[in-house]
Amino acid sequence: MSEQAQQKQQQHRLMAAIRQYGGDVADIPFWEGCEQGVFLLHRCNACGRHYWPASRCVEHGDHDMQWVEASGRGEVYTYTVMHRAYTPDKKDKVPFVIAVVQLREGPFYHSNIVDSAHDEVAIGMAVQVVMTPHESGLTIPQFRPADD
Amino acid sequence: MRGKCAIVGLGVTEQGIGIGLEGRELRARAVDLALADAGLPRDAIDGYIRAHVAPEDLRHMGLSPNFSVSMMTGGATPVFAIVAAMALIEAGQAEVVACVYGEAQSAAAITGKPDIVSYGYGYPMLYGLLGAAATHAFHAQRHMHLYGTTSEHLGAVAVTQRDYAVARPGTLGFGKPLTLAEHQASPLITDPLRRYDCTRNTDGGVAVLVTSAGRARSLRARPVFILGAGTGHNIVNWHRGLVYENHDNVAPAKARALGQAGMTLDDIDMAQLYDPFTISPLMQLEAYGVVPEGHGGPFYAEGGARPDGAMPTNTGGGQLSAYYSTGFTGVAEAVLQLRGQAGAGQLHKAETSLVSGHGMNAGVQNTWAHACMILGRNP
Ligand SMILES: [Zn+2]
């Protein structure tokens, strides 16, 4: 990436929110997609492997990596119920579920499971994405039980 | 490799919560204790590795080595630092390398404003994920799903280690027994991990002096020989989509360490396994093949990790019940056991010990570095 492009990225309107919550500058296209209601993954066009967050392909590096629209569907792979809040936005939401969703395309996505009682969340549960506004100003994918 | 180097000095400061000393002073005292233990003069240390990333503090210690290195690969740093010390000695760059740790963790937690981003694992902070307990809970939940491991099994780890600490002066758990019922009654922090499944940050310093086997024999303390070592990194399991089944990438570390030592698992008398949470030693015992996959819970429940069990594990109470020195806890315990200095907790058979380290916050993939070594009473 050129110095100019890097500088432009640093000044991106979403940058402060992404930084505040530990996100990565390389994922800006993903968060822009969320604002449009689109769930993107980073794909290597050489082999078709999907990645999240932004990565270099383990086989092909970054010569043909592209953000592509993904299914937004997957299964709960593992999860925890957080009984303590460490971030201000969760203070009045304890306990809440954080799951690692294995997306149909392969990558893992860490998210909250919503529209489901805590004791109904289980490994293997089919889930689908629902875009939700976050207090940081970002739109974030959360997951709820799948329709079918 | 086998037996070419040895640990000849061990310094362990007071360890505990809010002991009122800053990190630099803890490190300096640990070095003083290690030098006294080895019977070496201050200028014998010609290499210095600090297990942390930070400015150096040689002047404060009155040391004058030829190099000073900061090293950080999470809780694998102590073992890795000792491996690096051996390599530097073998490369002719030093004769006595000090591997040093000392932090006032509890004081920082009490007085400082912790930078929460440094406890995060990247973007999942948007969802409230913060701290290593949650990321280890992912391993625990998956293990329960695959193998039927229970909270009582995790409790058996906590109780086993506490029982070791109860008899060990200077530990957090000294004289304070813990029952399974108390474990079960302790609050959930991040399901399935309860309060007693988690370590607490403590203050303390530890220094270990490494030298060649030849020089070791001329020193005061009984040498503890480094018989083999190995590393493995869990990033490969992230790439394979198997990171939650694998607490660490133990296979390459185990193969190299046992290979260098010319040993099999049957030759190992005890294990000191990195234990930030109860799930951690349980999964490592499986990964090392001490028990078959999925049998870690029953192994603990049936007493397999106790002094008379098949593999006494974390025999000084570990980080869960003794003190948290980010990986030096197990190193220090192995040295004490192999020297026959473990007091009331001395194992009858203590010729060899496996020691592991694990850690490093690498972001969303929470990949853990792993390093292990086999220490022996004899070369
Ligand atoms: Zn590729």
List the helices and strands and how they pair.
The complex is a heterodimer of chains A (148) and B (379).
Chain A: H1 3-10, H2 15-20, H3 28-35, E1 40-44, E2 50-51, E3 65-69, E4 73-82, E5 96-103, E6 108-112, E7 126-133, E8 139-145
Antiparallel strand pairs in A: 1-2, 1-3, 4-5, 4-7, 5-6, 7-8
Chain B: E1 5-12, H1 23-38, E2 47-51, H2 58-61, E3 68-71, H3 77-90, E4 96-104, H4 105-111, H5 132-147, H6 151-166, H7 180-185, E5 188-190, E6 193-194, E7 203-212, H8 213-216, E8 224-233, H9 235-239, H10 250-261, E9 270-272, H11 279-287, H12 296-301, H13 318-321, H14 328-339, E10 352-359, E11 369-376
Parallel strand pairs in B: 2-3, 2-4, 9-10
Antiparallel strand pairs in B: 1-7, 1-8, 4-7, 5-6, 8-11, 10-11
The structure holds zinc ion.
Keywords:
heterodimer; A: 148 residues; 5-stranded antiparallel sheet; 15% helix; 34% strand; B: 379 residues; Peroxisomal Thiolase, Chain A, domain 1; 9-stranded mixed sheet; 14 helices; 11 strands
Describe this structure in words.
Chain A has three helices and eight strands; from the N terminus they run αααββββββββ. Chain A has 148 residues and is α+β, with helices and mostly antiparallel strands. Chain A has one domain (3-145). In chain A, the strands form two sheets. Chain A has a five-stranded antiparallel beta sheet. In chain A, strands 2-1-3 form a three-stranded antiparallel beta sheet. The longest helix of chain A is centred in the N-terminal third of the chain and has 8 residues, at 3-10. The termini of chain A are far apart. Chain B is α/β, with parallel strands linked by helices and 379 residues long. Chain B has one domain (5-108, 200-376): Peroxisomal Thiolase, Chain A, domain 1, CATH 3.40.47.10. Chain B contains 14 helices and eleven strands. A nine-stranded mixed beta sheet of chain B has the order 3-2-4-7-1-8-11-10-9. In chain B, strand 2 (47-51), helix 2 (58-61) and strand 3 (68-71) form a beta-alpha-beta unit. The mean pLDDT of chain B is 94. Chains A and B meet through helix 2, strand 4, strand 5 and strand 6 of A and helix 5 and strand 5 of B. The site of zinc ion has 7 residues of chain A, from loops.
